[in-house]
Amino acid sequence: MERGRTNHLRLMGAEQHTLFAEAELETPGFSFVVRSMQIDYLKPARMDDVLDVVTWPVAVKGASITLGQEVWRGEVLLVKAEVRVAFISEGRAQPIPKALRTLLKADLD
Amino acid sequence: MTKPNLDGEIRAGRHHMEVRVYYEDTDFSGVTYHANYLRFMERGRTNYLRLLGADHRALFEDAQNEAPGFAFVVRSMAIDFFKPAFMDDVLEIITTPTEVKGASIKLVQQCRRGDDLIVEARVRVAFVSGGKAQPIPKALRLAIEAVHLPSETTARL
User: Fold this and answer.
1) Least confident span in A92-96, A99-103, B58-62, B145-149
2) How many domains does chain B have?
3) Which of A36, A46, A66, B106 is a plausible cystine mate for B99, CB 3.0–4.6 Å?
4) Chain B contact set for A89 (CB, 8 A)
C-alpha cells in the first residue's frame, strides 16, 4: 500500500509537473508521512498471487490527506484501509500548498 | 523455552518487550519506517503468547486438544503514529489485552521511548483453527483472563 501511495503521487507529479514544481518552491523538500491507519484484513493472499492495489483520495484538509486504499485479487477484496498522511516540510507539519491541494481535490469523488 | 532478554516479560497484566531501532529499520528520511512498527508489535504479540503458554502450559495443552493447530490472525488494526523513532533508539513495546470474547481478542499496543508515546495501535486478532475462525477454547480464555487482564475485566470472573 505504501507503493500504491508513492506511485499515486509519482503519477500526479508526472501529469502535473508545473503544479508540483510550484509546491516544491513553496515548501522545499516536502513529503507525506503516515499519521494513522485503519486496516481491515478480510482474506489472505498467497504466494504467487497478483494483487491490485487501489488508492484514491477521500478528503483533503489543511495539512493532511485521507486516502482510501484497497487490495484486491481479481474480484475478491482482501484488505481495505483508510490512511491519513500529513504534509511535512523541513521536518514539521505544514499546510498543503494551494497548488497541490487543488490537484488532489480534483480527484475527489 | 523462554528467554527473558529476548521474549520480554508480563508485568501487572501487560507484556513488555524492548527493541532497538537498527539502520535496517529506518527509511530514506532517517526515521523508523512506519510499517516496521507492525513487525515490532507482532513480535510483542508473539512473545506475549509464548510467555502465556509457558506460564500456563496445562491450559494451553487443553486448548491445543480442543482446537488443534490453533493460531491467531490479525483481523483489524487502528494505528496512530504520533512521533518518529530514530536509529539506535530503544523502544518499549507494551501489549495489553483489553477484551477476550467469542472468537477474537482485542489488544492495545504501544511503542514507547521512555515517556514518549511513539505509536499506539488497537488490534483485533481472530482465533483460527483448521483454517476457520473458531470460538476461543475456554482453557485459553482463562489463561488470558485469569492473570493478565487489567483488574476491571478480571473482576467479572
Assistant:
1) B145-149
2) 1
3) B106
4) none
Number of domains in chain A: 1
Domain CATH code at residue A30: 3.10.129.10
Tell me the three cell numbers of residue A88.
511535512
For residues B43-49, give the mean pLDDT.
Answer: 94
Whichever domain contains B116, its CATH number is: 3.10.129.10
pLDDT tens, residue by residue, A14-37? 888 888 888 888 888 888 899 999
Instruction: Provide φ and ψ at B97, rounded to 5°.
Output: -75, 135
Q: Which residue range(s) make up the domain with A21?
A: 2-105
Instruction: Please say if the pLDDT value at position B151 is more than 60.
Output: no
**Rg (alpha carbons) of chain B, rounded to whole number:** 16
With beta carbons less than 8 A apart as the criterion, state whether A23 and A97 touch. yes
Q: Which domain holds residue B33?
A: 4-145
User: pLDDT at position B150, please?
Assistant: 52
Mutating which of A2, A30, A34 best tests the B interface, going by the most B Cβ atoms within 10 A?
A: A34
Nearest CA in chain B to A80: B76
